Structure formats: structure tokens, C-alpha cells
């Protein structure tokens, strides 16, 4: 199976420069449907599903390869090479912000600019660093997911989405989580929530935009500030949006911020 089929890659738009959109944990490329079309007039827009998500080839999932985020970054580089992406723009939500970072380090000419939506280089608190969770909280979260995938999805999605006054958003995220293969979700969750890419931030040469939501239980403001301080070429924009998925809850604000950056 080709790389493009493996990751259900979709290409649209009429521009010559590429803009690649990558989704977060438990989601798929559909999460960009309110943002990506806004750039089709000026960019070649590329969207894809990580292996194990959406309409990707589930048979391609390899627990060894995807035990950490580098496996996903390698896929992203393969996609970019297959489509001839050079000096493009990468837009990554949540964990995909770090996946894009790793891809940019492996293939420096692929992306001139990175847009990180709700990034976190480490979710677990450390000395002098607040990631938002203790190590025991992350282990409890991972154990809950392993024991009761549907229950975890129903409990976590509303907290992650925020915007309690718009329950349809939490319902969409819950349904997205529930569609994910439980075994694959368990592996991806561990790769995500136990990752530590703090040292990689300072290696990034690409211009970087960090979009931080004003209230976010997954990536609190201190995390966005940490990323900004660690990346000399970065800009930090705090959105009025709340929750961890502004691409769904406040797409116009996300589009405006990306447009001003690129």
C-alpha cells in the first residue's frame, strides 16, 4: 500500500506552497474541516489520518514503530516526500504539534513554518516545569483508557473540549474517540502522554506560531509560555477560545491567527 493510501491523504487547493494539517489524539482529519478550506485559494492543502485513526490503514499499525512519536513523525516525512513538499507550512493540533516538530528536525527543508495549536512538549510535571499532570494522574488516565475505552471517552471528551454550553462539540469528540480502535488508542495515548520533547524545542529552525487557548486542561498557559521561551523564532498568540480544540470550537479565530502568521 502506498504512503498516501496508508494515511488516507487528501489534497485540495490551488496554491503552489503546501500547508499540511495534522490532527490530535483520538481524532482524524475531519477535525480540520472548518479551518483547512480557508487556505485552499492560496495553498496546496494536505490533510491525512495518522495510522490507526480515521480512514487510515489499520493493518499498518506497528506497536514497535509507534511506541513513541518519532514513528508518526517518520510517516509525516514520508507523506511530504511523496507529495514533494518543500518550504511548506505545517499545522499540528495537540500531540501533532510535537510530531511536526520532530518531522521538521528530520527533514529541515520540508517546512519553513510550523503552527502549533495547543502544543505540549511534556504533559507530566517536572522540577521547575508544569505540564498540567502528575505522573500518577497520567498513569491513572492510561489505566482507565486500557480498562474501559468507551467510559474513558465519555468522561474525558467533555473535559478536553470544554465549552460546556455547546454540548454538541463534546459529543463529536466523544464519538471520535469511540471510533478509534481501543488497542491502538491505548498505544497512541501512552506515546502521547509520556512523551518529553522539551529539549527538541530549541533545535527548531522554522518560524513557529504557538496558538494557546485561554483555558485548556490539557495544555495550560504555562506550557505555551514554556514553548515560546524555548523557541527563539516563535510567536505566541493566546486565543479567546477555551478548551483544547479551537479548530472545532473557534475556527474563525484559528484561521485569522494562521493567516496573519503566514
Question: How many distinct folded domains?
Answer: 1
Residue-averaged pLDDT: 96
Instruction: Report Rg.
Output: 17 Å
Which structural category do the helix and sheet elements fall into? Answer: alpha/beta
Distance between the termini: 34 Å
Question: Which parts are unreliable, with pLDDT below 50 for 5 consecutive residues or more?
Answer: none
Polypeptide structure, described:
It is built from 11 helices and 7 strands. It is α/β, with parallel strands linked by helices. The chain has a 7-stranded mixed sheet with strand order 1-3-2-4-5-6-7, with helices on both faces. Helix 4 crosses helix 5 and helix 4 (135-147) runs antiparallel to helix 7. The longest helix is centred in the N-terminal third of the chain and has 14 residues, at 69-82. It starts with a helix and ends with a helix.
Break the fold down into its secondary structure elements and pairings.
Layout: H1 3-6, E1 10-12, E2 18-22, E3 44-47, H2 69-82, E4 88-93, H3 95-106, E5 111-117, H4 135-147, H5 149-161, H6 167-179, H7 182-193, H8 198-201, E6 207-215, H9 221-230, E7 234-242, H10 246-249, H11 251-261
Parallel strand pairs: 2-3, 2-4, 4-5, 5-6, 6-7
Antiparallel strand pairs: 1-3
Helix pairs in contact: 2-3, 4-5, 4-7, 5-6
List keywords for this structure.
262 residues, globular, alpha/beta, Rossmann fold, 7-stranded mixed sheet
Amino acid at each position: 500500500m502506498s504512503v498516501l493510501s496508508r494515511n488516507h491523504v487528501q489534497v485540495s487547493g490551488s496554491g503552489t506552497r503546501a500547508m499540511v494539517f495534522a490532527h490530535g489524539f483520538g481524532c482524524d482529519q475531519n477535525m480540520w474541516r472548518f479551518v483547512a478550506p480557508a487556505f485552499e485559494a492560496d495553498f496546496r492543502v494536505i490533510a491525512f489520518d495518522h495510522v490507526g485513526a480515521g480512514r487510515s490503514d489499520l493493518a499498518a499499525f506497528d506497536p514497535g514503530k509507534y511506541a513513541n512519536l518519532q514513528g508518526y513523525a517518520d510517516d509525516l516525512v514520508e507523506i511530504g516526500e511523496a507529495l514533494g513538499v518543500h518550504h511548506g507550512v505545517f499545522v499540528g493540533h495537540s500531540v501533532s504539534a510535537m510530531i511536526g516538530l520532530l518531522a521538521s528536525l528530520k527533514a529541515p527543508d520540508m517546512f519553513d513554518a510550523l503552527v502549533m495549536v495547543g502544543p505540549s512538549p511534556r504533559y507530566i510535571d517536572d522540577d521547575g516545569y508544569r505540564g498540567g499532570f502528575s505522573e500518577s494522574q497520567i498513569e491513572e488516565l492510561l489505566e482507565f483508557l486500557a480498562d474501559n475505552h468507551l467510559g474513558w471517552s465519555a468522561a474525558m471528551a467533555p473535559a478536553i473540549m470544554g465549552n460546556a454550553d455547546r454540548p454538541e462539540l463534546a459529543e463529536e469528540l466523544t464519538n471520535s474517540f469511540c471510533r478509534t480502535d481501543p488497542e491502538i488508542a491505548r498505544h497512541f495515548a501512552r506515546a502521547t502522554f509520556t512523551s518529553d520533547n522539551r529539549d527538541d524545542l530549541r533545535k527548531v529552525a522554522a518560524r513557529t506560531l504557538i496558538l494557546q487557548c485561554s483555558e485548556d486542561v490539557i495544555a495550560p498557559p504555562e506550557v505555551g509560555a514554556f514553548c515560546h521561551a524555548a523557541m527563539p523564532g516563535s510567536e505566541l498568540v493566546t486565543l479567546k477560545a477555551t478548551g483544547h480544540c479551537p479548530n472545532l470550537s473557534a475556527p474563525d479565530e484559528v484561521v485569522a491567527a494562521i493567516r496573519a502568521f503566514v
